[in-house]
Specification:
single chain, alpha/beta, 27 strands, elongated
């Protein structure tokens, strides 16, 4: 079989007692894989086309490994050999096209593509992904179905152990699946799988990065990057600041942050920023907010809604401490990240 695929992955995962997928780990997801790789996977699984999630047994991994080796993909052949010893269910996800996912393993493959930096936020179709993932207890013993958690906790206690529940969520921590090169993450619980972190990114303890969101790198993140938000290189998100995401009632506007921007501590944006913009600490800019435009002499020019300033470069947003009105004027000094903070990521 010779066929082009959008993406594929050989993975190992966790199912509940009903055989439903809770999570899948793809050690090396592939974007636009070589046809020889597709052929090897198809022969091992019986794949005939379309978007499919196929189980694979350990006895099929030896010929798969040999075929991948013959296709000059020793790295994938080694992974197939390693998975022969797995006691967990194995899966091959093959996506002929990037369409709306229909299964949890498909969602996990796309989340891996993002966190492996193979695609950027908004470059893959994740429509409906949230509804395909079960709410899972992420524990010291891996992913556990919530309906089965009590029994697993009891079993652990009977063995003299304590089963630690680290979170209850649809999305796991990114670093349990992939740690991108050149990043620092102070608290790994605050970065979800499906985040895209560009090289040189630092996420401090109070920073947060959601799925299908992230940074170009280098960036300093001490605030919240919500789902769907992408931050341009050289920008700084101050402590406690936030960005309105696609799950936060932001309408059809895709929020983004341009290059060399500064969002001050406890500030926020509900409009996309262009390059070299600054938002004063504590100020939240929304699309419907009335903003007074000032000229170079500080004189009022006009008043516009926040959405009229979306994606415009070189703006400084501030609140007048005497009148309380929100003002916008030209930004004369773009933020420059401290290079020493990122030099050793």
């Amino acid at each position: 079989m010779s066929k082009k695929l959008f993406a594929c992955g050989l993975g190992v995962g966790t199912q509940n007692t009903q055989g439903e997928w809770l999570e899948v780990y793809y050690p090396q997801p592939l974007l636009n894989p070589d046809e020889e790789v597709v052929k090897a996977l198809a022969e091992a699984t019986g794949y005939e086309g379309g978007n499919q999630v196929l189980s694979i047994t350990a006895d099929r991994l030896e010929p798969l490994s040999e075929a991948l080796d013959a296709a000059h993909r020793l790295d994938l052949a080694v992974i197939a050999q390693q998975l022969k010893r797995s006691h967990r269910p194995l899966v091959v996800s093959l996506l002929e096209e990037d369409k709306e996912p229909e299964t949890a393993p498909e969602v996990y493959l796309k989340l891996h593509l993002l966190s492996h930096r193979l695609v950027k936020p908004h470059q893959v179709n994740l429509t409906g992904a949230f509804g395909l993932l079960k709410n899972v207890a992420w524990t010291s013993d891996g992913a556990i179905d919530l309906e089965e958690l009590t029994q697993r906790q009891l079993q652990a206690r009977m063995e003299g152990k304590i089963l630690t529940v680290e979170s209850v969520d649809k999305f796991p921590r990114m670093c349990d699946y992939v740690v991108p090169e050149g990043v620092r993450i102070a608290d790994t619980a605050r970065v979800r799988l499906g985040a895209y972190l560009g090289s040189g990114t630092t996420v401090m303890h109070e920073g947060f990065v959601n799925f299908n969101a992230g940074t170009e790198g280098p960036n300093m993140i001490e605030g919240r990057i919500s789902a769907g938000v992408f931050v341009g290189s050289g920008s700084d998100l101050g402590g406690g600041c936030s960005t309105m995401g696609t799950l936060s009632g932001g309408g059809n506007i895709v929020i983004s942050v341009g290059e060399k921007c500064l969002i001050g501590a406890n500030a926020g944006i509900g409009i996309p920023l262009g390059d070299r913009c600054t938002v004063e600490a504590g100020l939240y800019i929304t699309a419907g907010m009335k903003i007074t435009l000032l000229d170079d002499k500080g004189e009022e020019v006009s008043q516009v809604a926040g959405r009229a300033l979306a994606n415009q470069d070189d703006l400084l947003f501030r609140r007048n401490s005497n009148t309380g009105r929100v003002e916008c004027l030209g930004n004369r000094s773009a933020v420059e990240l401290n290079e020493s903070l990122h030099a050793h990521n």
